[in-house]
Amino acid sequence: MKRQNLKDKKHTEKSIEASIVINGILQYKQYAGSIEYDNEDNMFYGKVLYINDSVLFSGNNIEKLTAEFKNAIKDYLSMCKEEGLEPNKPMSLSLIHI
Predict the structure, then answer these.
(1) What is the rounded distance in angstroms from the CA atom of residue 42 to the CA atom of residue 57?
(2) CA 35 → CA 7, 22, 57, 68, distances in Å?
(3) Which one-letter DSSP state was computed for residue 74?
(4) Using CA atoms, how far apart are residues 48 and 82, in angstroms rounded to an integer?
(5) What is the pTM of this model?
(6) Using an 8 Å Cβ cutoff, are 86 and 44 in contact?
(7) What are phi and psi of 20, to 5 degrees?
(8) What is the pLDDT of residues 61-76, one digit of tens each?
(9) How confident is the model at residue 31, as a pLDDT?
(10) Contact 46, 58 (CB under 8 A)
(11) Nearest alpha-carbon partner for 34 in 54, 51, 52, 49
């Protein structure tokens, strides 16, 4: 039984060692976007933060993710204009008091 537990522990440690944790924030035109990494898909992805609408983007490297974030913001603003809607304004972090 101890041998099995040791084997499970080694497997868990290897899984943890293989994990890559990347997170951060992108900024463009006063909008902020999250940066996350999916180990299984080997892809970066994110969403525009601090707005009520859902705007998602992804890329296979940081450069592509950054470009897709900027394109997502441009597309979002363009779509709002075409549909006569007011785009969500990003929430000002200076208004948050902890």
Answers:
(1) 15
(2) 34, 7, 10, 12
(3) H
(4) 20
(5) 0.71
(6) no
(7) -120, 125
(8) 999 999 999 999 999 9
(9) 94
(10) yes
(11) 49
